[in-house]
Amino acid sequence: MSKLKQTIKIITPDTTISTQDRGLNYGDGFFTTASVINSVVEHWDLHKARLDECVQRLFFPELDLTAIEREVNHAISDTQTGILKIVVTRGAGGRGYGLPDTPSIQVLISTMPAVSHYKNWQQQGANLEISDVKLAHQPLLAGLKTLNRLEQVLIKKQMSSLECDDVVVLDYDNNVIECSAANIFAIKDGQVISPKLDRCGITGVYLSALCDKLAIEFKAIQLDELLAMDAVFMCNSLMGVVPVARIADTQFDIECSKALLTAQFAKESV
Predict the structure, then answer these.
(1) Which CATH number is 6-112 given?
(2) CB 116 within 8 Å of CB 54
(3) Quaternary arrangement and interactors, per the entry (predicted)?
């Protein structure tokens, strides 16, 4: 795949994007969101791998990751702790949905303050309900963090009427997939389990990082199976690992959950 000319933009209040940009018109693009700690992007190699996978599967031209990394370092140079977001679009061009012959890739880089309430969730656990909005199957996009996130918008809208911190999201076969903006994993009888994401859902960078530390089995999980787990957790790049205190009417012992997870890390480190 040939390397084509790219335009790299740092998001600022006066940033302008063409009204013909394909990311704006069709969601033709992808993004990643990372935690910045001590002016360093956590799991940067995995975020780059995510960008590269999106490039390959969505037929984008090769990204100049060296140039992107240089701009990222500039953007976070004054950020001790915060959030980095990288959005990649195919730019303007093409006729309708048809791809442009020579796309002008737009890489938009921005930083934001860290989310303060995640620390409380890590200590006290998160309360979840079950979303009425379900995810459709599209294996060609499964696992990717594309700009097509209208399902998540609807999930968040429905969630706003519930008394909870987040929701468990199912697919149309009633398999557990994820939370509104985080992956789910659980422990049952000493085995770490997470939903299989081959038909829908997003493969999070933090979940990928955990695979290097835990022996995670990916499988189809029905809701009743999730409720019967010994411990349930949420995770993403910004919140890290958050124990789940409640799913609907099912309660989990937070201290027991933390102890079970600590034991899993210790077992895998031996």
Answers:
(1) 3.30.470.10
(2) no
(3) Homodimer.
